[in-house]
C-alpha cells in the first residue's frame, strides 16, 4: 500500500509538470524568474526561497516555463511526502493519506496551484511540515523540535505569513511532555536554528534601510474602516477554491476533531483554523488574498478524512464538484481564444470584462516581437547598439514578461511611475549610474502616461502606437514613447544610491 501511495504522488507530480510546461507564464511568475536572474539575499516584497529554487532548474531546463514552475511542482511532491507521516501520527493509515492527497487534488486551489509558482504554495508545504513536527512534539518526540525549527525558518524564507504556524506550535505546549522538553536544550537550540535560517531577510533589510520590513508592516495594504465585506469575500472565495460541498465538509470537520482530548489532535485543529482566524481578522480592515487560506485547507482535508465526517457519497459529490470546477477553468482557458472572434462586453462592467480586456491575456509573443522591432529601428536611426536601448513599462508584469519571452535579449526596466506597491524588486538591482543619458523605449497598454514621462526625462518622443491583432475581433494596442536621459532616476527607476564618489 505504501508503494502505491508514492506511485500516486509521483503520477500526480508528473501531471503537474506536464501542465506547467504547456501553460503560458503569468506576469507574476515572470517577475519571480527575473528576480532569480539577480541573485540576492532577499527581495523587496518577497523573501527569497521560491526565487532561489528556480535557479538550479533554470540551469537544467533552460529559460522555460517548466523551470520557472519547478518550485510549485516540488512543493506538491513534498506535500505528499509530509502527509503520510502526519496522518500516521494522528492514527491514520496509508489508505487515509492516499484519500487526503486525492481530496487535495479535488480542490481547484491545489489541483492548479501545484503547477503555478507562487510564494504561497512553497510556504504551504513548509506549513504542513511545521504541523507534522508540532504534532510529534505534542506526542513527546523531542527530536521533532528540530523539524519544527527548520520548517518555520524555511517557511519564513518562502513567505512571511508562516507566522500563522506559531499558533499550532504554541498549542503543542499544552502537552505536558512538550512542556517538559523546555527544560532541555533541544527546543531552544532548534529556535536558534530557525532564527539563523531567516538571516537572509534581515541581511537584505539592513542593506536597504529595512524597506522590506516596512513594506510588510505598513506598506502592503491600505486599511479601511472595520467591516465584514472582505471577510465574506475571503470565505466565499474559499468555497470555490476548495469546491463548495467539500468546503462545507472541511469547515465542519474541525468540530469533531476538537472533541478529541489528544493534544496532537488539538495541534492539528489549530493548524486548520489558524490561517482563517488570522487572515479573517486582517480582512476586517483590508482585502486579503483568496488563496491565503490554503494551508488551513490542507489541514482541514486531513481532519475530514480522519474524522470520517460526512457520508462517503457526500465526499464523492464534493470531489466531483471540485474536479468539475477545475475542469471548467481549464476548458475556459482553452476556449478563451474563441471569444476573441467577435466583439463583446459585460454591460454592468464593460471597462473590466470585454473582448478588449480578454485580448490582453494573449498575443504576448507578438507584443514582445513588436517592441523588439521598435527598439531595433530606434537603434538603427540613432546609430547605437540595440542592446544599449532599454525597453520598459509602468507595469512590472509586462516588463518582466518582455524579458522572459525574449529569453533575456531585451534589456527591460520597470518604470515605477503610477504609485503601485508590488513588484518593486528591480528598483534595487541597478544603481543610478546605469541610467545616465540612457534611452528607454517605453510601452504601455494604459494610455495617458506622456505628461508624466516628460516630467521625468529630458526628451520624450511619442511614436505611433503598436497594434497587435488577437483573434478576429480582439487586439492589443501599445502606446510607444522614446524616452532619453532621465532627469533623476531615483526613485522611479532605482532606489539605490550612487556608487561613484
Element layout with pairings:
Layout: H1 2-22, H2 27-36, H3 49-61, H4 65-89, H5 94-105, H6 108-113, H7 119-138, H8 144-158, H9 166-172, H10 176-181, H11 186-197, H12 199-207, H13 211-219, H14 229-241, H15 244-252, H16 254-258, H17 263-282, H18 294-307, H19 312-335, H20 355-359, H21 364-382, E1 389-393, H22 396-405, E2 412-414, E3 439-444, H23 450-456, E4 457-470, E5 474-486
Parallel strand pairs: 1-2, 1-3
Antiparallel strand pairs: 3-5, 4-5
C-alpha geometry: globular
Gap from first CA to last CA: 68 Å
Number of helices: 23
What's the count of strands? 5
| Number of structurally distinct domains | 2
In spatial order, strands of the major sheet run 2-1-3-5-4
What would you call the structural class? alpha/beta
Strand-and-helix sequence, N→C?
HHHHHHHHHHHHHHHHHHHHHEHEEHEE
The largest β sheet comes out as: 5 strands, mixed
How confident overall, as mean pLDDT?
Answer: 90
Rg over CA atoms: 25 Å
What percent of residues are in strands? 5-15%
Amino acid at each position: 500500500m505504501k508503494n502505491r501511495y508514492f506511485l500516486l504522488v509521483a503520477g500526480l507530480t508528473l501531471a503537474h509538470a506536464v501542465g506547467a510546461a504547456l501553460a503560458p507564464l503569468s506576469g507574476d511568475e515572470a517577475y519571480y524568474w527575473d528576480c532569480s536572474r539577480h541573485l540576492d539575499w532577499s527581495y523587496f516584497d518577497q523573501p527569497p526561497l521560491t526565487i532561489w529554487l528556480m535557479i538550479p532548474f533554470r540551469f537544467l531546463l533552460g529559460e522555460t516555463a517548466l523551470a520557472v514552475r519547478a518550485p510549485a511542482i516540488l512543493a506538491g511532491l513534498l506535500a505528499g511526502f509530509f502527509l503520510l507521516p502526519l496522518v500516521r501520527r494522528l492514527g491514520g493509515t496509508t489508505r487515509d493519506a492516499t484519500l487526503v492527497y486525492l481530496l487535495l487534488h479535488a480542490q481547484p486551489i491545489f489541483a492548479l496551484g501545484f503547477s503555478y509558482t507562487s510564494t504561497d504554495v512553497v510556504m504551504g508545504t513548509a506549513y504542513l511540515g511545521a504541523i507534522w513536527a508540532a504534532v510529534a512534539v505534542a506526542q513527546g518526540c523531542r527530536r521533532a523540535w528540530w523539524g519544527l525549527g527548520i520548517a518555520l525558518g524555511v517557511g519564513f524564507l518562502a513567505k512571511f505569513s508562516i507566522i500563522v504556524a506559531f499558533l499550532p506550535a504554541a498549542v503543542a505546549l499544552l502537552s505536558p511532555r512538550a512542556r517538559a522538553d523546555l527544560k532541555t536544550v533541544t527546543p531552544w537550540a532548534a529556535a536558534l536554528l530557525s532564527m539563523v535560517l531567516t538571516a537572509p531577510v534581515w541581511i537584505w533589510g539592513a542593506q536597504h534601510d529595512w524597506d522590506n520590513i516596512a513594506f510588510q508592516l505598513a506598506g502592503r495594504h491600505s486599511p479601511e474602516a472595520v467591516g465584514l465585506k472582505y471577510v465574506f469575500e475571503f470565505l466565499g472565495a474559499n468555497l470555490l477554491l476548495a469546491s463548495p460541498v467539500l468546503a462545507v465538509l472541511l469547515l465542519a470537520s474541525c468540530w469533531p476533531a476538537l472533541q478529541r482530548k489528544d493534544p496532537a489532535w488539538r495541534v492539528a485543529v489549530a493548524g486548520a483554523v489558524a490561517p482563517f482566524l488570522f487572515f479573517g481578522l486582517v480582512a476586517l480592515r483590508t482585502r486579503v488574498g483568496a488563496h491565503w487560506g490554503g494551508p488551513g485547507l490542507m489541514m482541514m482535508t486531513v481532519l475530514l478524512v480522519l474524522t470520517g465526517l460526512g457520508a462517503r457519497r457526500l465526499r464523492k459529490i464534493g470531489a466531483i464538484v471540485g474536479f468539475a470546477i477545475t475542469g471548467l477553468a481549464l476548458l475556459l482557458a482553452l476556449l478563451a481564444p474563441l471569444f476573441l472572434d467577435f466583439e463583446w462586453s459585460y454591460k454592468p462592467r464593460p471597462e473590466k470584462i470585454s473582448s478588449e480586456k480578454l485580448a490582453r491575456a494573449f498575443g504576448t509573443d507578438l507584443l514582445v516581437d513588436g517592441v523588439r522591432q521598435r527598439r531595433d529601428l530606434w537603434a538603427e536611426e540613432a546609430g547605437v547598439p540595440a542592446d544599449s536601448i532599454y525597453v520598459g513599462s509602468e507595469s512590472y508584469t509586462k516588463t518582466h514578461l518582455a524579458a522572459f519571452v525574449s529569453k533575456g535579449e531585451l534589456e527591460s526596466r520597470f518604470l515605477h511611475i503610477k504609485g503601485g506597491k508590488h513588484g518593486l524588486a528591480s528598483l534595487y538591482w541597478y544603481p543610478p549610474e546605469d541610467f545616465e543619458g540612457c534611452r528607454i523605449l517605453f510601452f504601455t497598454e494604459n494610455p495617458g502616461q506622456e505628461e508624466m514621462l516628460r516630467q521625468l526625462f529630458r526628451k520624450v518622443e511619442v511614436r505611433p502606437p503598436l497594434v497587435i491583432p488577437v483573434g478576429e475581433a480582439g487586439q492589443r494596442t501599445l502606446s510607444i514613447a522614446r524616452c532619453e536621459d532621465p532627469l533623476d532616476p531615483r526613485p522611479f527607476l532605482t532606489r539605490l544610491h550612487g556608487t561613484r564618489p
